[in-house]
Predict the structure.
Amino acid sequence: MNTPTIETARLILRRFTEDDLPALYRIYRDEEANRFLPWFPVKDMAEARTLFQTRYAACYAQPRGYAYAICLKRDSQPIGYLKADTEEPYDLGYGLRREFWHQGITTEAGRALVERVKKDGLPYLTATHDVNNPRSGGVMKRLGMAYQYSYEEQWQPKDFPVIFRMYQLNLDGNTDRVYHGYWERAAVRFVEENV
């Protein structure tokens, strides 16, 4: 099943629906919550609807996909999102409204998704974060991901250079595998000490 519902102690991870457009707008309009993400915050409900159609409805139309609304069990209202790509580089991504930061919510949701994609046969997951956003790297570490390397990319559509740290979690027992795609495309690339 594409994007099967997942429950954790505090959360329900489920598909976004059109009824969630006001919540989606609240998540993606916040400048601080979207500061380290490649896209610009949405400006209005029309942009939120377009985002839903292109990012979520399009994923749900595929045979397999993992694109979740992170919801608290108490009301099932989306407060963030979580996704994993089903093709290389098997990128894991997440975002959460500011008022829910520092409560372990993203880590709890991420652990549940890692278990699900491992069960479903994804070989590994990667995730990247801006070096200026180390808290995102903390989530990656708590999910069991290991730092591999850093690289510079001209971030689009914001169009400025960013140094990213790339983390990886191998799920199929191949502990030596490292995804090198970002490394190979980057003119500036290096391995940091003590990350």
Observations:
- The first strand starts at residue 6 and ends at 7.
